């Protein structure tokens, strides 16, 4: 990184600027009024804990950590189905590394691998395609997960497989979409959210327009934000300004990267290959209509759910796990009964503890120190 | 998987349209650039890469910001770079 780059980084880390923003944020808060602001994206959760953003906020402002970590929301049944596919004759299952430790009812991919299943870690669905090309006598399946940041890549890979006429490649599609999940959260009766910090990278694909219903129908301000500490503080300031003025609009703090209209090519690729499912289960949140994608009939031969007789396993979430309440923002990670005791990043019970971007793991790794600081400051 | 990693486009692949050689964290990697709109990418452009596909063009300053954010992620970023290093997209 050149000196120019460093200076720019410093600018977004500047403690004085953060304090100036914090001072301004404090002036926007009505004493005694509670402001619940949900950051949707796990990347934001990570920044918030890593940099102790809560230290800069008045007590009235509460950050609620949302469902924007795809690893955290995949239900156990889908993991079990994927393992079932991996154990079929001649199958090579390929998956992002993030998913290897996620527990299903019958253990994780790593456990299945230990039992003899051929499960290979890949960086990109294009790697799975290469594995399929190199192993014509095997059936190669890509375990597709993620929000709109990874969905276009899966769609493009299916298009490529179709163009090449590959016959031994399919996708077990678990792609989820953020908008229906937000609608489900907005419909929950125990909701205490006054505004949203919108996801950065998902919005590079879907743009800012799809969030309009949150501002207009639900009256909640929505600000798409970048991942630097100052980005998040700025987004919080923009939300509080809207709340003070009684406005609810969609604003884009992250114009450096996010175009208002999103990435049309990526959206077209998704639409060509996939369609919304009638409903899909989210761990902790239950069944949400139209909240996930499946492969269209036109590309059926690349759809693992059609190629294999997938059992469609349904498994209830572990009773001790309160990931659902954490994902809805009803409780904080440390208020979960098993947090940090039975459930840790090494032995996760719930998915929020598996991914480094999950609220529980982020809090376990960094956030505890913030709370400690806050408590010490309070008692000093 | 969720991490968007910045890379600098070195060359466009003449033989395989839509692919480019990109410098990512000091390593040369093949990246699919077909999703970048309009005038596409040129050598010297910075792009944000998600699982082997460039999803957005960014400027160099934003690239540096994103890199410093990623470096702070620690293990998650190291795992992603490792996976990328083992990737053989073609």
Outline of this structure?
The complex is a heterodimer of chains A (380) and B (90). Chain A is of the alpha/beta class.
Global Rg of chain A: 21 Å
* Continuous helix count of chain A: 16
Characterize the overall form of chain B. Answer: globular
Largest interface: A-B, 51 and 41 residues
Strand coverage percent of chain B:
25-35%
Total count of strands of chain B: 5
Number of helices of chain B: 2
Helix and strand pattern of chain B: EEEEEHH
Largest sheet of chain B: 5 strands, antiparallel
**Would you state the CATH class of the domain at 76-178 and 262-307 in chain A?**
Alpha Beta
Gap from first CA to last CA of chain B: 19 Å
- Under the CATH scheme, which class of the largest domain in chain B? Mainly Beta
What can you see in these coordinates?
The complex is a heterodimer of chains A (380) and B (90). Chain A is of the alpha/beta class and 380 residues long. Chain A has a domain at 76-178 and 262-307: 3-Layer(aba) Sandwich (Rossmann fold), CATH 3.40.50. Chain A is built from 16 helices and 13 strands. A five-stranded parallel sheet of chain A has the order 2-1-7-8-9. In chain A, α2 (15-28) runs parallel beside α12 and α3 (42-50) packs parallel to α16. Chain A is globular and about 65 Å long. The two termini of chain A are 41 Å apart. With 90 residues, chain B is an alpha+beta fold. Chain B folds into two domains: 1-58, SH3 type barrels (Roll), CATH 2.30.30.140; 59-90. Chain B is 29% helix and 34% strand. Chain B has helices at residues 60-73, 75-86; strands spanning 5-12, 19-24, 27-32, 46-50, 53-58. Chain B has a five-stranded antiparallel sheet with strand order 3-2-1-4-5, with helices on one face. In chain B, α1 packs across α2 (75-86). In chain B, 47% of the residues are buried.
